[in-house]
Design goal:
seven-stranded mixed barrel; four-stranded antiparallel β-sheet
Length: 601
């Protein structure tokens, strides 16, 4: 059948049936759990959950996305699963929430005094507050040692730098641009933040309309951030959906721009923050633990924290707040605020064309939309910089440029250690989710933190790490050397040996004889490396939040037990990955010189 005929058939099916009927016809999913959403079409849809995520575009293609979980009129089913309220009017009258004592709001998720605050805090009436929380909401002020919006979770009290400096270097922060380091008040992993966003209904409808999912424009809103240490109102923010395929998930991720109205405003040094939802089990937790390992490896890596988010009084569940990769981030880590920052989507860094316009306009198509393969997230708009880099990388330049003169090889190889350890197929091996930064030649002139003007490589989105593969940690990259010139040069000669040396040192300092350990819960004599006990501590820390996260449960067809099971399984898988890597990498015995020019291969 011709493509045009297929399209007509798809459209006829889409409009001949409701989206629910079409999706139920498309797959045999009768064994999957039933979920209910209020769609962006204003109608309640009940269907068997797909559990295929973005792979099944039938709802978005029909122009329907999730306004919120639960029946229309009863967001999150009024938090019935938490005992906060119930939906009234089922079959008679307009459905609405009737909240139990101690709770209020459109979905009964907001605190109303008197509320016992889990017996670990005090309920403060909204008339006494100095911040514009949702108008009807009171709040819990937690006792020392307790956190979350209802004081039900004990603070973690985890050490800020649990692994020390794995390679003997200082953490990757530039003091002139970064006063907080690992102790940033927004990215406090021992506390849970509460984030309240208020946005005009028309702007919210625009954001969640499937037709606008890939529009890179922030809409105006206001926000209150509260993690017990910081309570601050931030008017004039911007908000939009972010992600690639995940933009069509029922639970979205968001980008927050603190400088949307006032371009000079920074929230504790931050221009913006990313809010990542989750479309599976414990992906947020996995991302968090692996980013901690990356920061301990002294490479540019995002800081992050966990919390809950409300939009116009409705709880949208757990989010992982992580640093946006922007000029504030590059200044914090590399000392260069100004430069060209490139993000890549399905790109192998091949010298495809001498024309800058080719890279500006190169696109790829997925089931939902067309996406730029190359994007300049910040910079001067001149793409010749990227053309020159790809040309030099391909060794077509004369004379050939050695890799260590072109890019920070130490950062690259240390990131590669983590990618190979966890078998992250969604990184440079999969031609995705990596970033290159090139500072301008005159960047931050006069600063004492100037470095050589080489490119830098770093990663985002480690949540797709496989953990259960057993491919050799060198073969993980050499299998792609034919298609990626950066890997072809990085895994040869002296660079390959340095990679192995780094890997051995990483293993020794994280799970080997030189690793910090904690007593395991199984008994006073058992000892486990910190990476495992820390993973388990975060799992237990977040259980209550996932129980509350009706949006995540609806988007995935799971409940909080799946989160616990998924995290527990990944801890076991991570142990096996470390064990496998230890069998593939020689035991590290001697320090590796740092900040020394590398010998060209």
């Amino acid at each position: 059948m011709k493509t045009g005929s297929l399209l007509l058939l798809f459209l006829s099916v889409c409009y001949a049936f409701t989206c629910t009927q079409q999706c139920d016809l498309k797959y045999d999913i009768s064994a999957n759990p039933l979920v209910t959403i209020c769609g962006t079409d204003g109608l309640t849809h009940t269907f068997h959950h797909f559990r295929w995520g973005w792979g099944d575009p039938c709802y978005p293609k029909c122009g329907v996305n999730m306004e919120y979980a639960g029946r229309c009129g009863c967001p999150n089913e009024c938090m019935k699963q938490m005992g906060y309220g119930q939906c009234i009017g089922n079959g008679r009258g307009t459905p609405h929430c009737q909240c139990n004592p101690g709770w209020t709001g459109p979905d009964c998720s907001l605190v109303s005094c008197p509320n016992m605050c889990s017996y670990h805090g005090q309920c403060v009436g909204h008339s006494d507050q100095d911040l514009p929380y949702p108008a009807e909401a009171d709040r819990c002020v937690c006792d020392p040692g307790w956190t979350d919006y209802v004081c039900s979770t004990a603070e973690l009290q985890l050490p800020l730098a649990p692994y020390g400096n794995i390679y003997g270097d200082a953490y990757e922060y530039v003091a002139a641009h970064e006063p907080y380091g690992e102790d940033h008040p927004v990215y406090n992993s021992s506390r849970l933040f509460s984030l309240f966003v208020s946005i005009a209904p028309a702007d919210w409808e625009y954001i969640i309309d499937p037709d606008n999912a890939y529009v890179e424009v922030h809409r105006p809103a206001n926000m209150v951030f509260d993690n017990g240490l910081i309570r601050q109102s931030i008017p004039g923010i911007g908000i939009r959906i972010k992600g690639a395929f995940s933009r069509m998930d029922m639970k979205h991720g968001f980008s927050i721009d603190f400088s949307h109205v006032n371009k000079h405003f920074r929230f504790f040094g931050l221009k913006g923050v990313g809010l990542k939802g989750t479309n599976g089990g414990d992906e947020l937790l996995k991302d968090h633990v692996l980013m901690e390992l990356a920061r301990a490896s002294a490479v540019p890596a995002q800081r992050a924290s966990f919390g809950l988010m409300w939009i116009n009084g409705i709880c949208f569940g757990v989010f992982w707040a992580n640093e946006e990769i922007d000029e504030e981030f590059t200044a914090s880590r590399m000392g260069h605020k100004h430069g060209n920052l490139y993000k890549f989507f399905k790109v192998n860094l091949v010298d495809e064309s001498p024309l800058p316009s080719f890279y500006q306009n190169a696109m790829t198509t997925n089931p939902m939309t067309t996406i730029h393969r190359y994007s300049q997230a910040s910079g001067n708009g001149d793409w010749q910089d990227l053309v020159d880099f790809l040309h030099a990388l391909s060794s077509k330049s004369s004379p050939a440029v050695h890799l260590d003169a072109l890019i920070d090889v130490q950062h690259l190889l240390r990131w590669c250690v983590i990618e190979a350890l966890v078998q992250d197929w969604d990184g440079i091996v999969g031609a995705n989710n990596y970033i290159l930064h090139h500072p301008f030649a005159d960047a931050d002139a006069g600063s004492s933190t100037q470095t050589t003007q080489r490119w830098d490589y770093f990663r985002i989105d480690l949540d797709n790490a496989s953990l259960n593969k057993k491919i050799d940690v060198v073969q993980w990259f050499t299998q792609k050397m034919a298609t990626n010139p950066l890997l072809r040069q990085a895994f040869a000669g002296r660079y390959l040996q340095l990679y192995k040396d780094y890997f051995g040192q990483f293993l020794a300092r994280t799970v080997g004889a030189q690793s910090p350990s904690h007593a395991a819960t199984r008994g006073p004599t058992a000892v486990q490396p910190v990476v495992y006990t820390r993973y388990a501590a975060y799992r237990d820390f977040l259980v209550h939040c996932f129980k509350l996260d009706f949006a995540w449960q609806t988007s995935n067809g799971y409940d909080e037990r799946h989160f616990v099971d998924s995290a527990t399984e990944n801890i076991a898988s991570l142990k096996n990955r470390f064990k496998t890597a230890q069998s593939q990498v020689p035991v590290w015995t001697a320090p590796i010189p740092t900040n020394v020019p590398l010998t060209s291969p």
